[in-house]
Amino acid sequence: MNSNEIRERFLSYFESQGHSRVASSSLIPVGDPTLLLTNAGMVQFKPYFSGEATPPNRRLTSSQKSFRTVDIDEVGDATHLTMFEMLGNFSFGDYFKDGAMEFAVDCLESAMGLPRENFSATVHEGDDEAYDLWQKHGIPTERIYRFGDADNWWGPPIHGDEGPCGPCAELHYDFGDARPGCGLDDCGPNCENVNPDTGLVCQRYVELWNLVFMQFYRNPDGSLPPLPQTGIDTGMGFERLVVVLQDAEDIYGTDLFLPLIRKVEAIAGHDSEESAEVRQAMRVVAEHGRSSAFLIADGVVPSNDGRGYVLRRLVRRAIRHARRLGMDEPFLGDIADAVTDIMGDAYPELRNNRDFVQTVIKLEKNDSVGLSRTATRC
Ligand code: SER
After folding, report:
1. From the CB of 38, is ligand 1 less than 6 Å away?
2. pLDDT by residue (tens digit) across 9-19?
3. Could you tell me the distance, in angstroms and rounded to a whole number, from the CA of residue 81 to the centre of ligand 1?
4. What dihedral do alpha carbons 157, 287, 72, 163 form, nearest 10°?
5. Which residue puts its alpha carbon closest to atom 6 of ligand 1?
6. What would the pLDDT profile of 255-272 be if each residue is shown by its tens digit?
7. What pTM was estimated for this model as a whole?
8. How far is the CA of 311 from the centre of ligand 1 (A)?
């Protein structure tokens, strides 16, 4: 399945379960001063969770453009992204834990064709109900793990000051022997063990889907009153799902990124497998080029503060890494065009604003010339 088919299959599955499909909102959050950039599928639905507005349907589904600034400096490894897509299904006073967990297992199994025996699950350490429900939906106890707030609580303490929040349960995909694991006895979801023989971090499990049981509203003063009604907010990392379904080595081996890497290789005249340094630089150029195209298509322009500064950092970091590859000619515009070819059907704003994206990239590139001349070549 190509990535467009996978996204469509997810949204169609939830439509067939009574959900209405909602378009991704802009990366610039609308009417939400608590956030710099949209960082999850639930952002556009906050007023529905808090009870301030009534949703068009008590069941919604979306594929949401999301951006997390915390990971900018990690980009270039095999897993971190700035802009990613979050697949989600949402309930506002309709189904709760039982329904959300049943949908998650069934969607992965029946719509995506993944074998249930490869799923492992987590719950918040105090959530016995969720623990029992995973069993009810076919996950055996030896594959259910309990974690504390750091892993299994979602909400504003981490992602903003104020808003709906609650405990979570997650589904992880277990690659078994197909990926290099740590081989240690305590291996499981969220494993960060280092394999004693290879020195590599365990890659056996990948977290696919986070199911948040929305029950509380965090106020800026720290109080946590219950929401007027319970809700479900789920988020599945689209790129990770594509890695699993396309059996790719990592995100850069999927059809979302491989054409971008090939484009960088063609412009740079290098092979991405030449060395670890070349591979890392190419990933940064491809990833930041993609994220920049999305930000600009949503109306972000480079500046020295706020979201404009995030964009400026991306463009300048991409230019710095491009110089390491010996790329001096304009290249971000080419990457943006390739992104539009891959994702323009799902996100028409990329096509509608193609010229604007090209103009902004050109102006920023000219502004930045000279800034990165000192970059060391790979
Ligand atoms: N809001 C949750 C997350 O971002 C689930 O969508 O993981």
Report:
1. no
2. 999 999 999 99
3. 15
4. -20
5. 235
6. 999 999 999 999 999 999
7. 0.94
8. 23
